[in-house]
Specification:
With 846 residues, the chain is of the alpha+beta class. It folds into four domains: 53 residues, Arc Repressor Mutant, subunit A (Orthogonal Bundle); 221 residues, 2-Layer Sandwich (Alpha-D-Glucose-1,6-Bisphosphate, Chain A, domain 4), CATH 3.30.530.20; 230 residues, START domain (Alpha-D-Glucose-1,6-Bisphosphate, Chain A, domain 4), CATH 3.30.530.20; 153 residues, PAS domain (Beta-Lactamase, 2-Layer Sandwich), CATH 3.30.450.20. The strands form five sheets. Strands 3, 4, 5, 6, 7, 8, 9, 10, 11, 12 and 13 form an eleven-stranded mixed sheet that branches. The protein has a nine-stranded antiparallel sheet with strand order 14-15-16-22-21-20-19-18-17, with helices on both faces. The protein is globular, with a radius of gyration of 33 Å.
Length: 846
């Protein structure tokens, strides 16, 4: 409140100074209403007029003729200051409202926890009493009374109303009471900018998750959004309301049938037959609660139903309460029984995990509401002039198309083919008439082929793997396959006259379109640069554009699924562009993934290969963590690639699809081996693991060689500091320091953090980057002219120039120095040349 008073006082003082000006006698005179009106008109057009514009204003407006130009300038300064103070006051009011609402939410959570403690104390006392009774009277027959629920007829309105009221009571006891033993998820940061407070069940039937949050939307609007589950729940295939009737108390009851996708090719999909009850409470809150009904219910034909396993939704829903000053407080509860018995043993932890339900449903719902609220307030800016709703539709279509390909439902037109003994790859075919993502204008296509596979990876961080696949597409993808898919989808005037011979330059440019509020999902356009090899088309660009979503690249996210899904798209990006998505999905799976206590005690350490640089753990600690991680860290990788084809090319495309996907699998396995701490080969270990003794030794050689050549220190080292300190200083050096091999085509082998940032790469991918690849034409010429000098005298200074990151972005630097790095032996008489080092001074992105 003190901040508000200061802001209001400043606004009043500014307003007073704006109403007066000095006259020719040096006295303060108030502006007339006509003068203020004239100034305000100019201010609305130009809040900061130039000196010429102010003088022109005095000449053109006679009522301002007696005011000095300096006074006019002061008036505009004060007016801008008053606008700024008003905005600050409004912001402080908004923050104050959010803090008040969050305080109320935390107080309610504290009350609930106190009730839970009291209940546990009572239960503990009761159990002690029961134990004493059993010990004292062993021969006493115990009678267990099971509460008998009144039988309800789900086929009558009265029976459904009874079920609805019971569902409401059970849901409220979970949302605000102690019906479920909730445990807070790690990483909770209450505050005005937090998304919400999240909890998962510790001991209960099925899996459950809960979220509480503050959103600047009205309750009715939030209820409408959340009831439209396919718009925000990516695994929801369809939702159909079969019956709706009033409940008699202002509420409505709906009978709902919902189908969900399976995340992999190894398990069947789920469906739900539920009762959904929408009503309002006496305190003005709005409730949408839901639970499963017994029986087969409505739904698809028996043939279609055989593709699904009926799952159970226990009492779940949304409690939406209006907030003082606008907005709402939301309580979300998701409680499911996913019938884990129906999936292979390796996947069962995935279906018994409360944190997976939290990530996919509970947190996603709250994030989606927050996203829409920020979009409606104009707080988010998107690329290429696209509206937020259009970009959301693009993301949903990519995700839905990939899920359709992975599941291959028969009622969508998919059927399984054989692929010449390729038992590890499933090949399916679909005709275009069944594909929702293909427009009617492409009816000339024979259909779409999908090659998909699922595999288990050991000790591979999903976020690191997906990030590598995103940043280094040339390591696993074939440009000609991308070009073929793009050309096949182009009809009419945009069609290629056949797939012309094309050279891929190896460059990809990622252009961001939009992202969610916590950057857990990014929508972007990828341009793959290609040029025709045909002489008549030598100057024509053959670039391929891909629309792409990337999710789950935050390594610290709890239980997150990482995805990279992409589809060829026309370069003009029409809103109704046909999309045939392909991609990767990596799901972390752990033997104890459903144990909340295990979730709390886990250290959530970053699995990046550079993590050991932070504090330099002892070898014993590092090896201990690695071994424990290796024994429990697993993930499921699902790959699905779709290929549109013309009717007469089905067999050819089928063969190409199998061969290509097998090649992609080999590449991904090679990358996984490289980034897995347990899978690094000895030859790569010394280069990739900066916490190793080899990296410590290399950093000393870099520093000593720099001093030997230039006569000054690269880093300032205290004589009392350990050898590891040199590595830390070089790693955190502000200049980009990179080392490359002495091969005929030098390849980078080490870089500090600034070097990785400049090249926009990782230590794993660094070894695939050649020295000449990062320079433009002029930079390569300068390097060639000074290379002989470098090899002769041992060092060289390169002038300012421009280099390229792996993402195709231009980087400027004021100076670059290069020097030979010697392997200094103890006797200093046998120093062998080890590598070349480069330091880019004061670099920045253009």
């Amino acid at each position: 409140m003190e901040m508000m008073e200061v802001a209001n006082h400043g606004e009043r003082s500014t307003s007073d100074s704006m109403n007066r000006h000095l006259d020719s006698n040096g006295k303060y005179v108030r502006y007339t209403s006509e003068q203020v009106e004239a100034l305000e008109r100019v201010y609305s057009e130009c809040p900061k007029p130039s000196s010429l514009r102010r003088q022109q204003l005095i000449r053109e407006c006679s009522i301002l003729a007696n005011i000095e130009p300096k006074q006019i300038k002061v008036w505009f300064q004060n007016r801008r200051c008053r606008d700024k103070q008003r905005k600050e006051a409004s912001r402080l009011q908004s923050v104050n409202r959010k803090l008040s609402a969050m305080n109320k939410l935390l107080m309610e959570e504290n009350d609930r926890l106190q009730k839970q403690v009291s209940q546990l104390v009572c239960e503990n006392g009761y159990m002690k009493q029961q134990l004493t009774t059993v010990v004292n009277d062993v021969s006493c027959d115990s009678v267990v009374t099971t509460p008998q629920h009144s039988l309800r007829d789900a086929n009558s309105h009265a029976g459904l109303i009874s079920i609805a009221e019971e569902t409401l009571a059970e849901f409220l006891s979970k949302a605000t009471g102690t019906a479920v033993d909730w445990v807070q998820m790690p990483g909770m940061k209450p505050g005005p900018d937090s998304v919400g407070i999240f909890a998962i069940s510790q001991r209960c039937s099925g899996v459950a998750a809960r979220a509480c949050g503050l959103v600047s939307l009205e309750p009715l609007k939030i209820a409408e959004i959340l009831k439209d589950r396919p718009s925000w729940y990516r695994e929801c295939r369809s939702l159909e309301v079969y019956t709706m009737f009033p409940a008699g108390n202002g509420g409505t009851i709906e009978l709902v049938y919902m189908q969900t996708y399976a995340p992999t090719t190894l398990a069947p999909a789920r469906d739900f037959w539920t009762l959904r009850y929408t009503t309002s409470l006496d305190n003005g809150s709005y409730v949408v609660c839901e639970r499963s009904l017994s029986g087969s219910g409505a739904g698809p034909s028996p043939a279609s139903a055989s593709q699904f396993v009926r799952a159970e939704m226990l009492s779940s829903g949304y409690l939406i309460r209006p907030c003082d000053g606008g907005g709402s407080i939301i309580h979300i509860v998701d409680h499911l029984n996913l019938e884990a018995w129906s999936v292979p043993d390796v996947l069962r932890p995935l279906y018994e995990s409360s944190k997976v339900v939290a990530q996919k449903m509970t947190i996603s719902a709250l994030r989606y509401i927050r996203q829409l609220a920020q979009e409606s307030n104009g707080e988010l800016v998107y690329g290429l002039g696209k509206q937020p709703a259009v970009l959301r539709t693009f993301s949903q279509r990519l995700s839905r198309g990939f899920n359709d390909a992975v599941n291959g439902f028969g009622d969508d037109g998919w059927s399984t083919m054989h692929c010449d003994g390729a038992e590890d790859i499933i090949l399916a075919i679909n005709s275009t008439k069944h594909l929702s993502n293909i427009s009617s204008s492409l009816s000339f296509l024979g259909g779409v082929l999908c090659a998909k596979a699922t595999m288990l990876l050991q000790n591979v961080p999903p976020a690191v793997l997906i990030q590598f696949l995103r940043e280094h597409r040339s390591e696993w993808a074939d440009f000609h396959v991308d070009a073929y898919s793009a050309a096949t989808l182009k009809a009419g005037a945009f069609a290629y006259p056949g797939v012309r011979p094309t050279r891929f330059t190896g460059s990809q440019i990622i252009m961001p379109l939009g992202h969610t509020i916590e950057h857990e999902e990014m929508l972007e356009v990828v341009r793959l640069e290609g040029h025709s090899l045909a002489q008549e088309d030598a100057f024509m660009s053959r670039d391929v554009h891909l629309l792409q979503i990337c999710t789950g690249i935050d390594e610290n996210a709890v239980g997150a699924c990482s995805e990279l899904i992409f589809a060829p798209i026309n370069e003009i990006f029409p809103d109704d562009a046909p999309l045939v998505p392909s991609g990767f999905r990596v799901i972390p799976i752990d033997a104890k993934t459903g144990d909340a206590q295990d979730l709390i005690t886990s250290n959530h350490r970053t699995l990046d290969l550079t993590s050991s640089l932070e504090v330099g753990p002892s070898p014993e600690t590092a090896s201990g963590n690695s071994s424990s991680s290796c024994s429990s860290s697993r993930c499921i990788l699902t790959i699905a690639f779709q290929f549109p084809f013309e009717p007469n090319l089905q067999e050819n495309v089928a063969g190409m699809a199998c061969q290509y996907v097998r090649s992609v699998i080999s590449s991904v396995q090679r990358v996984a081996m490289a980034i897995s701490p347990s899978g690094i080969s000895p030859g790569l270990g010394s280069k990739l693991s900066p916490g190793s003794p080899e990296a410590v030794t290399l950093s000393q050689w870099i520093s000593q060689s720099y001093t030997h050549h230039f006569g000054s220190e690269l880093v300032t080292i205290d004589s009392l500091e350990s050898n590891d300190s040199v590595l830390k200083l070089i790693w955190n050096h502000q200049d980009a320091i990179l080392c490359c091999t002495l091969k005929p085509q030098p390849v980078f082998m080490f870089a500090n953090q600034a070097g990785l940032d400049m090249l926009e790469t990782t230590l794993v991918a660094l070894q695939d980057i050649t020295l000449e690849k990062i320079f433009d034409e002029s930079g390569r010429k300068a390097l060639c002219s000074d290379f002989a000098k470098l090899m002769q005298q041992g060092f060289a200074c390169l002038p300012s120039g421009i280099c390229l990151s792996t993402m195709g972005r231009h980087v400027t630097y004021e100076q670059a120095v290069a020097w030979k790095v010697f392997a200094f032996e103890n006797d200093n008489n046998n120093n062998n040349l080890h590598c070349l080092a480069f330091s880019f001074v004061n670099w920045s992105f253009v």
